[in-house]
Amino acid sequence: MASSLSLFISLYLISLVVLPSSSSSSSDRKTFIVQVQRDAKPSIFPNHKNWYESSLSSVSSSSTQKRTTFDTAIIHTYETVFHGFSARLTPSEAQKLQSLPHVLAVIPEQVRRLQTTRSPEFLGLKTTDSAGLLKESDFGSDLVIGVIDTGIWPERQSFNDRDLGPVPSKWKGQCVAGKDFPTTSCNRKLIGARFFCNGYESTNGKMNETTEYRSPRDSDGHGTHTASIAAGRYVFPASTLGYARGVAAGMAPKSRLAAYKVCWNAGCYDSDILAAFDAAVADGVDVISLSVGGVVVPYYLDSIAIGAFGAASSGVFVSASAGNGGPGGLTVTNVAPWVTTVGAGTMDRDFPADVKLGNGRIIPGVSVYGGPGLTQGRMYPLIYAGNEGGDGYSSSLCLEGSLNPNLVAGKIVLCDRGINSRAAKGEVVKKSGGTGMILANGVFDGEGLVADCHVLPATAVGASAGDEIRKYITSFSKSRSPPTATIIFRGTKLGVRPAPVVASFSARGPNPESPEILKPDVIAPGLNILAAWPDRVGPSGIPSDKRRTEFNILSGTSMACPHVSGLAALLKAAHPDWSPAAIRSALMTTAYTVDNRGGTMLDESTGNSSTVLDFGSGHVHPEKAMDPGLVYDIATYDYIDFLCNSNYTTKNIQVITRKAADCSGAKKAGHAGNLNYPSLSAVFQQYGKHKMSTHFIRTVMNVGAPNSVYRVTVRPPSGTVVTVQPDKLAFRRVGQKLSFLVRVEATAVKLSPGSSNVKSGSVVWTDGNHNVTSPLVVTMQQPL
Fold it and tell me: Where is the signal peptide (predicted)?
């Protein structure tokens, strides 16, 4: 798995970086992001944009080729987190531009994808507490969370500004008007809104304004949903189609919001995302929430990593979704160490919708279908779509046009997951005359279930349940009593055990780019999350769905990320002097790995115990994060040492950091794993050696009581010897920093070539009141 993935990434990088010199036609143009040495601008140019245009025309081949409007123009200029511009270039133009002395880098654009009521209470945030994180931070009232997403539906009650004070005086942002979005759409809650579509349109041509808005208004729903998770106001009553009734609230209900729309019908384009980072930091946001992901590439080719570095070095906390590529390993995205990477867990709430088969078997499933339901007590004919179409593969997946209405009408249809969206399969069955649908996971999906707002009576079942239903259909199809079934919708169930569980789809480690940095960092609620929803989008997200609802239930690491963004705003409000790294440290070292039954959190896809590669440091615990005792802080120069020790060239590093890098002192830091990160990850290559060892140096800062003595407890990964020196840290004042050394010795294990073995343990510092926990991961690799 690891070797095939690294081969794929290598090939992908070669395709990204090689700029062929052959003459290219206009159709070969692609968007590139160009970094320039900002202070090299000749004085003859009145501003940087004029200089960039001159640089472009000097390499342009437009005299011999026809260029479109989008080809001639600069797409965006960047001033804050990045210095340069983006433009459409042929490969030969990109190569010529790269050779200009003031051009530092020419980065190919990636297209990114979205990684799509009870959670504050499940997380222990209660408004009735007289003390605690919500009270201490005044609900985050002067902090600004920038949400980079699909825009926002400003009229939702989640974004009302009742009882909020004036807009913070530091705010420099704007409410940019556009289609169906006057400047009055903003208020004291939604204090800024911008949209970035130049990159999208330069690749795809002019947008279709009948299906999307040329404005910050959300025509998808994802951005409205994530914004209200981070900072939605208290709204009662809230529910989706009668499910999850109660109070809806975001993590930081009084924090201000700024919406930066970068995602459109064809995806989220890097040139637009970088422009949003640039604007958000200049506007004065405190937190950036980004529920978008793509292929993992080296940081100097990754616009999100570059934009996030600029944000973090300006004191802005950046949280990003880990991705929905789970449950396989090496699937985690947004892995830069200056980004807080968030995976998804379940909550103690469920929406059971069970399948009852004609043989009496009850098979558990989940759904948020809102009716009209199936006739109570009636059993319906049941078929497997894969047996009923001309092309068994297409029909098994219930793809558009694959089902025969004559065979489907009046029946419940079993469809397999894959290719088209889960809700779209229901629409295909409904259009073919089907009465209901059972959606079965594939082997790779395992037993993880996601509840959807289907357009017909439908439920989702796990992979083993799908196998059982198929066997039942096959065996009874040959008998006198043909197979039958019904779906029993049981509403909302609370107090579910075990919880939390690592969601099956949540992307997993190890970190494909920096194995010395454990990712994801933490997990947060991401399965079946209730949050605000736009007016003109049906809850299933399908164009034909004309139902309207103020809230919707969605799942994804997209939903987990804004939980952490909101918590970061609360922590920043309570501790204004904490850096982004200190906030992440507080969230990581206080996270928990035990579920509500007292055992290690389970992995939803297998039902077995999950590991640090699934949940990182664990599930966030907001109240404990408020008072972590100690924090692991990281400064900008520490990240530069990390990049030097990761074998990045000084030129590569300058692309990320905007400054000339000096790697001469990096060797003092030792190795990349010595970045002062709250988790510890050692990777040993077994080149015939029997014993191997490494060490980590870490520095902690006291943010608890002035006179505190911490003692260490080590739980070594099996097969290792771990020592910590000193084993006691005595602090005399708040803000004092002390260092310690962790030595890890490992013994070789028997492995086949190309395989690896991962074991985990922990290093915990305790003063009697605080437990400051760092996971310790040891990976043994057998080279090919």
Answer: 1-24
